[in-house]
Amino acid sequence: MYVILVYDIKGDEKGQRVLNRTFKICKRYLSHIQNSVFEGELAESQIIKLKYEISKEIRSDLDSVIIFKSRNQKWLTKEMWGIDDDKTSNFL
User: Fold this and answer.
1) DSSP states of the chain as a string?
2) Triad 10, 37, 44: Cα angle to 5°
3) Rounded to an integer, what distance in angstroms lies between the CA atom of residue 7 and that of residue 37?
């Protein structure tokens, strides 16, 4: 399944720790494409593990995570504006 994950961590006193841990978790599963945005192909079992790991780190009253899922990347088009810093373009 093709996944796009976006998170928003509140920038308070404990937010940097949450941000760092959330980033590291996402980086293990997905490709980092821009600030707090990740994308990639995952099996449903990997999505469940990812959600579980992130849910242990984020603060549900302050932080948010959105996961967009599609059966296949071909059903989405990616359009970039501004600096074309597509970090996934070097993959075969």
Assistant:
1) -EEEEEEE---STTHHHHHHHHHHHHHHHSEEEETTEEEEE--HHHHHHHHHHHHHHS-TTT-EEEEEEES-GGG------SS---TTTT--
2) 110
3) 7
Q: In this predicted model, what pLDDT tens digit does every residue of 25-59 receive, in sequence order?
A: 999 999 999 999 999 999 999 999 999 999 999 99
pLDDT at 90: 47
Find where tokens 């796009």 sit.
4
Determine the Cα–Cα distance for residues 14 and 5; give it in Å rounded to an integer.
22
Q: What pLDDT, on the 0 to 100 scale, is given for residue 88?
A: 55
* Domains annotated on the chain, with CATH: 2-72 (3.30.70.240)
Which tokens in the block code for residue 72? 């296949």
Nearest to 83 by CA among 48, 33, 24, 44: 33
